[in-house]
Every structure is written in structure tokens, then in C-alpha cells.
Amino acid sequence: MLDHTDMSILHELSKNSRIKMKELGEKVHLTGQAAATRVAKLEDSGVIEGYTIKVNNSKLGYLIHAWITIYTKSTYHQPYLSFVETQENYVLNNYKISGDGCYLLECKFPSNEILDQFLIDLNKHVNYKLSIVINKL
Questions:
Q1: How many angstroms separate the Cα of 103 from the Cα of each of 55, 83, 86?
Q2: Beta partners for residue 103, in sequence order
Q3: What strands, in cross-sheet order, belong to the sheet with 91-96?
Q4: pTM, entire model
Q5: Which residues, at least 6 apart from 24, have a Cβ–Cβ distance to it below 8 Å?
Q6: Which of 44, 67, 68, 125 is in Cβ range 3.0-4.6 Å of 105 for a Cys bridge?
Q7: Which domains can be identified in the chain, with CATH numbers?
Q8: Cα–Cα distance between 130 and 112 in angstroms, integer?
Q9: How far apart are CA 110 and CA 116, in angstroms?
Q10: What is the pLDDT tens value at each position of the chain, 137 positions in all?
């Protein structure tokens, strides 16, 4: 079970995973060594699975951020899943969901033309509802 200090460490690492252990320790009221020991335990227990970077997709030319709710046409989902695997340039995340739809795709596209072609190809496997992100608040 995680205590308040572990939760504080996770919070600080989620803001900046490159923080120096000494600075992390100061933020959570531990020594740098004690913070490093706690982080190692969180890694060993699987609470921390890895570290990553946050990419600004707009600066990479991906100006369209879309959420696509997927409605499968049958109970056989493999053709859709295989299609999604081939679209790694555009698909950020593919979530299996409950409620409205079967899957929720988070995607990025450099243009409306490429989005349109993606949707044409997607519609060969499933039906969908498209939502475009206007602004992140």
C-alpha cells in the first residue's frame, strides 16, 4: 500500500520524470538517497512501469487531434485491430471501452485529406463517430 510520501513522489515524477533525486527529496521532505530508495521500490513493485516523454504533435506537423468512437459491425474484431496496428503514424491510443461504442481511438493527423482517407479505410472494418479536439484546457 502506498503512503502519502509515495503518492507525492509519483506526483512529482509525473510532472518531471527527469528530476534529480536530491530535488525530488526536497519536494517530498526526504533526503535524495531516501527518495532514490523509494523510487527504486516503486519501480521494483511495478507501480512505476517506465518513463516517457511528452511530445508536442502540433510542432511535428500533426495539427488535427481526433477521438474516434468505434462501433464494430460484427463480433469478430480482428480485421479492425489489424488495421489499427498498421496505422501507428496516426493512432496514439486504442482503448477497449464499455458504454457508447466498443473502442475509442485517439489519433493525430497532419491534414484533413489524410484524416479523410484514414476514415474511408477505417469504414471498411467498422462504423465510427468522429470528434475533433478544438482546444486543450
A1: 24, 13, 16
A2: 70, 96
A3: 91-96, 103-109, 64-72, 126-132
A4: 0.80
A5: 9, 12, 13, 30, 32, 35, 39
A6: 68
A7: 4-44 (1.10.10), 57-132 (3.30.70.920)
A8: 13
A9: 11
A10: 899 999 999 999 999 999 999 999 999 999 999 999 999 999 999 999 999 988 999 999 999 999 999 999 889 999 999 999 999 999 999 999 999 999 999 999 999 999 999 999 999 999 999 999 999 89
